[in-house]
Backbone:
C-alpha cells in the first residue's frame, strides 16, 4: 500500500518549501489537482524562459524553466505512420511525460489549448511561443492549431512538410518574428517574394533563391544557402 | 538557568503543552529564529512557553538542534542522499504523526535546517506519482478538516502572541532591574545624609 501524507494539513510555508523541492514535471502534476494547489504552485514564481511546440505526428511541448526542461507529448497514439488519423485537438487529451514514461491526466479533462494555458499560467509565461512543423504534421487541422497556439515568435517549417500544408502554415501563422523555411512551397516566384518582403527580424531560407529575391529582403538577420 | 548569554553552557527551560518543563542548551535553542527574535538578547524569566507542542515533539526537535550544534552554518537545503546516518535514523524512527508534529513545531520555531530536510523528505515521497496517485498520497482535506486547520492556525497565532507578550514582559522586568541599583543608591545616600544630619543636630 502507498504511504500517504496529509500535505495540505501542514502550514502554508511548509507546503511551499515542499513544492520548492520538486521538479517542474511533478509541480505540473500536482498543480492539476485543484485550483488552490495551482495557485500555490504559481506563487512559487517559477518563470519559463522559453516555450517551444514541435508538431509532427504528435505535438511535443518543451518548456525551459531555469536549468530544467519540462517535455510533454500529446497525441502520441499511432504506431503505424501510414495510418495516421486526423486529430481534433479541441477534444480532451492526456499528456505524456517522455522523460518519466508517465501519462498525466487532469482532475478535469483538458484539451490541448487548456493544457497550454495551464502550463503558461503555472510557469508564468506570457510571450509568444516558438513553433516548429515537421513531417506528418498534416494530421492536425491548421485552424484549430492557430486557435490553440495564437501568435508565435519563431516559426520553423521543415522540408518534410507538404507544400500544401506549408502554405497553410504561412497563411495562418504569418505574424511570426523569425521565419525559417527549409523548402519553397510555391510554384510562382512572386509568391515566395511576398513572404520574403515581410518585416521579419530573421529569415532562414534553405531553398533556391535568386538575386531578385535577395534584393527584396529588408531584415536584420538572413540565412541563405542555395543561390541560383 | 534562564539568563541571556552567548555561552553554550547556558540552559533554558522549555514548557510543553502538558505543562512539563525540560532543559535545552542555549546553543541548540539559538537554531530557532523564533527564539532568537524573542529571547536571545533579553533572556527569559522562567520557562519559555511553547505550549502548543507536546513534550515528545519538542524534545525530538531539540534533539535535532542539539545534534546539529557543531555542524557548519546552514547554507540551504541538502539533498536527502547527503544526509548522515544519524540524520537518516532520526527521520526513520519517527511515525507519521510525530513527523507532522515535528514539521509544525520546527516551522513555528523557524529552524531552517530541520524544516528544509523534512520538506525535502515529503517532496521525495511525491516524486514519480501521477495526478491520481498524488491525490491518494496527499489525502486532500475535507471542508471540516480545512475549518479545523483554520482554527488551529488561529490558536497558534494566539500562542505566538502570548509568547511575544511574555518576551515583552521579561524585557520590561529587565529594564526595571537595571534601574534598581540607581534607586538603591539614591536611597542609601538619602539615609546616610539623614543619619549624618541627625547625629550633627544631636551634637
Residues:
Amino acid at each position: 500500500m502507498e504511504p500517504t501524507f496529509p500535505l495540505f494539513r501542514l502550514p502554508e510555508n511548509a507546503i511551499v518549501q515542499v513544492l520548492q523541492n520538486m521538479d517542474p514535471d511533478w509541480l505540473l502534476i500536482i498543480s492539476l489537482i485543484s485550483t488552490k494547489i495551482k495557485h500555490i504552485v504559481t506563487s512559487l514564481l517559477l518563470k519559463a524562459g522559453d516555450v517551444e511546440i514541435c508538431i509532427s505526428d504528435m505535438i511535443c511541448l518543451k518548456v525551459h524553466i531555469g536549468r530544467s526542461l519540462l517535455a510533454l507529448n500529446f497525441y502520441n497514439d499511432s504506431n503505424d505512420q501510414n495510418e495516421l488519423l486526423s486529430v481534433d485537438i479541441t477534444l480532451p487529451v492526456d499528456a505524456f511525460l517522455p522523460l518519466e514514461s508517465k501519462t498525466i491526466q487532469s482532475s478535469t479533462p483538458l484539451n490541448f489549448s487548456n493544457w497550454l494555458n495551464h502550463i503558461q499560467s503555472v510557469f508564468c509565461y506570457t510571450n509568444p511561443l516558438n513553433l516548429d512543423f515537421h513531417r506528418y504534421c498534416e494530421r492536425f487541422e491548421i485552424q484549430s492549431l492557430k486557435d490553440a497556439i495564437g501568435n508565435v515568435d519563431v516559426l520553423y517549417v521543415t522540408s518534410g512538410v507538404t507544400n500544401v500544408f506549408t502554405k497553410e502554415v504561412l497563411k495562418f501563422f504569418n505574424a511570426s518574428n523569425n521565419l525559417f523555411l527549409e523548402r519553397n512551397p510555391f510554384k510562382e516566384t512572386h509568391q515566395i517574394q511576398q513572404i520574403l518582403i515581410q518585416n521579419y527580424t530573421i529569415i532562414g531560407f534553405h531553398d533556391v533563391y535568386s538575386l531578385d529575391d535577395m534584393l527584396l529582403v529588408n531584415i536584420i538577420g538572413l540565412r541563405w544557402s542555395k543561390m541560383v | 538557568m534562564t539568563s541571556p548569554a552567548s555561552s553554550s553552557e547556558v540552559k533554558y527551560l522549555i514548557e510543553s503543552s502538558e505543562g512539563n518543563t525540560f532543559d535545552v542548551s542555549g546553543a541548540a535553542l539559538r537554531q530557532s529564529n523564533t527564539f532568537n527574535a524573542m529571547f536571545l538578547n533579553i533572556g527569559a524569566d522562567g520557562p519559555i512557553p511553547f505550549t502548543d507542542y507536546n513534550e515528545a515533539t519538542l524534545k525530538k526537535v531539540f534533539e535535532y538542534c542539539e545534534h546539529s550544534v557543531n555542524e557548519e552554518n546552514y547554507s540551504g537545503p541538502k539533498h536527502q542522499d547527503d544526509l548522515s546516518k544519524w540524520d537518516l535514523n532520526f527521520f526513520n524512527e519517527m511515525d507519521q504523526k510525530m513527523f507532522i508534529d515535528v514539521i509544525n513545531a520546527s516551522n513555528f520555531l523557524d529552524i531552517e535546517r530541520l524544516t528544509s530536510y523534512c520538506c525535502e523528505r515529503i517532496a521525495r515521497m511525491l516524486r514519480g506519482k501521477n495526478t491520481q496517485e498524488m491525490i491518494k498520497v496527499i489525502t486532500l482535506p475535507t471542508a471540516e478538516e480545512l475549518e479545523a486547520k483554520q482554527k488551529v492556525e488561529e490558536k497558534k497565532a494566539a500562542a505566538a502572541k502570548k509568547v511575544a507578550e511574555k518576551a515583552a514582559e521579561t524585557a520590561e522586568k529587565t529594564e526595571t532591574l537595571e534601574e534598581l541599583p540607581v534607586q538603591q543608591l539614591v536611597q542609601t545616600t538619602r539615609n546616610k545624609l539623614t543619619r549624618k544630619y541627625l547625629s550633627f543636630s544631636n551634637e
